[in-house]
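lol so apparently i was supposed to do this last week
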Amino acid sequence: MRSTVVALALLIAGCSSGSPIKVGSAYAVEPSGPNAAIYLDITNSGSSGDRLIRVMVDGYTTMIHETAISADGQASMKPVDGVDIAANSTLNLRPGGLHVMIMDAVGIVEDGSISATFEFETGSFTERIPVVSLDTYLDLLESQ
Amino acid sequence: MVLLVSGLVAGLILAACSTVAGSGDIDATGRFQGVELSEPTPKPSFVLTDTAGQPYDFQASTQGKLTLLYFGYTYCPDICPVHLAQITSVLDRNPPLRENTEVIFVSVDPGRDSPEVIRNYLDGFSEDYIGLTGSMDELRTAEEALGVPAAILGDTSDPDYLVGHAAQVFAWAPDGLGYTMYPFGTRQSEWAHDLEVLANLGGER
Ligand SMILES: [Cu+2]
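anyway here it is w/ copper (II) ion bound
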């Protein structure tokens, strides 16, 4: 039941302006430690490439991070300056890959929502995205 | 007789798989869904410090239990919580399994992860989970014992420095042997399957 509600919220978040850039399935996960992560899909239906420069959440410091797992099993995150989204493509920010990290995410709690501003080279827009519990997050991972 | 035995084996395999719902990639020849080690590997020995500040002898303290161990740090929001949340979800649904399982989180970031910080983090999953850390040298000894590369700390003068660490969960059955490991990306259904299989490999010794 809870998953259904979240899925609905995720769908609604996907409908934004008339720009060729759409953010879909965006959600933050309630933090287990000091920091939280946001995952999302970005679709560029335009005929030219764009670039996600940053994602801002009011009152918090954020960074775009890329997690990589090396051949010997070492996982590491590194900050990235921005993420290119080619024309007519979708970029998935998913666990174990790209994410937006919210530093010191005190106050970001499950079943709430946050306002996130997505800044692209061609413009920016703000959307409310849900904060999901770890359990819901696991359900989302299983369904991917 | 041969027929009878193979029938029995088939029955056991069926019984083992019947608890798995919706997992599409069951390897019919293997017992496990995690990554199988080339040979069963004895549990290593090392001593670190627990969240009460006491020395924790890994091998002695986990004897006879299904043991899961993961290196991470509490600042990591991406991979670390997924492993712990998946394991917790499986154990929460199976009290007898939980009873005989020791879940151990080793923080490789002692500069920020004090025993209190680790305790607080783990309590979000379970108060029964064991949190360990140590000096960089002690951690290196544990990493070497497990055959993983040493954690790499970023520039620690930046309060938000990042840490590279082993991404997989190690597991040992109650018989003290490791048969499998679990890289990031392991599915919940695979955990549910393997923890049950591992728990039944050997009892108290
Ligand atoms: Cu990160």
